[in-house]
Design goal:
Blueprint lengths: L2 H20 L8 E4 L4 H4 L16 E4 L7 H12 L4 E2 L2 E2 L12 E4 H9 L8 H6 L2 H8 L2 E5 L5 H6 L5 H28 L3 H22 L10 H5 L9 H9 L4 H24 L10 H10 L4 H5 L7
Parallel strand pairs: 2-5
Antiparallel strand pairs: 1-2, 1-6, 3-4
Helix pairs in contact: 4-6, 8-9, 8-13, 9-12, 11-12
Length: 313
């Protein structure tokens, strides 16, 4: 059973009754779930995940103080702390300091402020461009167990994915960055005999090409250590995982470089096919920079369209 399933079961057996019995007046104005940082919020937890910060628990999200005052919030915190210390073979560690909203009681506004800098999820174009994607994912991942008024659900809907123009700018930047690292700089570094530099170019290519894949599949790219774990779940591009792994883990001898070139072409071909399918370009080649120019031209906001191609990278 995953950590997210354990959290929901723990809430169902203990948390829900605690709220109904001790705080019935709050049931309709609070939200309960498990979202944010931590492998369990992504559904990626395994045996290694349990070596730190892994415990049964959930988060109670509160509305502003005029609805639920500090005294009531403190009482709720005390009640949460008194829930069973052990569940399904796991112990709660009450001495660990968690990120805002990971488990326990938190103001919904404080949680979203900590992730995206806006309590209501109302972001400007500039906000969308500068907030690290994994924070947007942490604000929208996991599961909401109860939220009658939409206290956090409504904000999460606003943050579900980038506005179209921002998506296009980020995609254009990712494509251009990937292109610069592959056919252009990778080849030049090989010709100079700089094998370490060539491999750094490969790393840059993989990072940006994978980012383009996440964007095209309408998903935020997670924190780097979860990228490959999340990639296998992409509906369009999961088949490229082997290509990316090979690019990162093989060397740059003559034979290996030839293999890398074929994998660049395979990745670029599939990305290009999806871009054409979406009507973002009719370019038939393999150079991602050409796709980037076409994608950027689709941006409706003139100031964003005219901003540097790499401004969203």
């Amino acid at each position: 059973m995953t950590g997210l399933e354990i959290a929901e079961k723990y809430y169902g057996e203990f948390g829900k009754k605690m709220i109904e019995d001790e705080f019935p007046e709050l049931k309709s104005v609070i939200a309960v779930g498990l979202i944010g940082g931590g492998s369990e919020c992504y559904g990626y937890d395994d045996d290694l995940s349990k070596d730190h910060d892994f415990e049964p628990g959930f988060t109670i999200f509160l509305p502003p103080e005029e609805v639920v005052d500090r005294k009531t919030a403190f009482r709720l915190e005390r009640a949460y702390a008194k829930l069973p210390d052990e569940f399904m073979g796991l112990k709660r560690n009450k001495d660990v300091s968690f990120d805002v909203g990971r488990k326990g009681v938190v103001r919904a506004a404080d949680f979203f402020l900590s992730k995206v800098g806006n309590a209501e999820g109302d972001l400007s174009i500039g906000d969308w461009l500068k907030i690290p994607e994994h924070y947007l994912l942490e604000a929208t991942n996991g599961k909401v167990f109860s939220d009658e008024l939409g206290l956090i659900t409504d904000v999460r809907k606003k943050l579900a994915f980038f506005p179209e123009d921002v998506f296009l700018k980020k995609l254009a930047g990712a494509l251009s960055a990937a292109e610069q690292a592959s056919f252009y700089n990778y080849e030049r570094l090989l010709l100079r005999g700089d094998l370490a530099g060539a491999q750094l170019a490969v790393v840059e290519y993989v990072k940006h090409a994978m980012h383009a894949a996440f964007l095209l599949d309408g998903q935020y790219m997670p924190y780097y250590k979860w990228v490959f774990r999340a990639f296998i779940e992409l509906p369009t591009f999961a088949s490229l995982k082997e290509d990316f792994e090979s690019l990162l883990t093989t060397g740059n001898s003559v034979g290996e470089a030839i293999e890398k070139r074929s994998r660049f072409r395979r990745v670029n071909a599939l990305i290009g096919e999806e871009i054409r399918r979406r009507g973002l370009s009719d370019y038939e080649g393999l150079h991602l920079d050409s796709f980037a120019q076409c994608v950027n031209a689709k941006i409706k906001d003139p100031s964003l369209r005219n901003a540097h191609l790499m401004s969203a990278v």
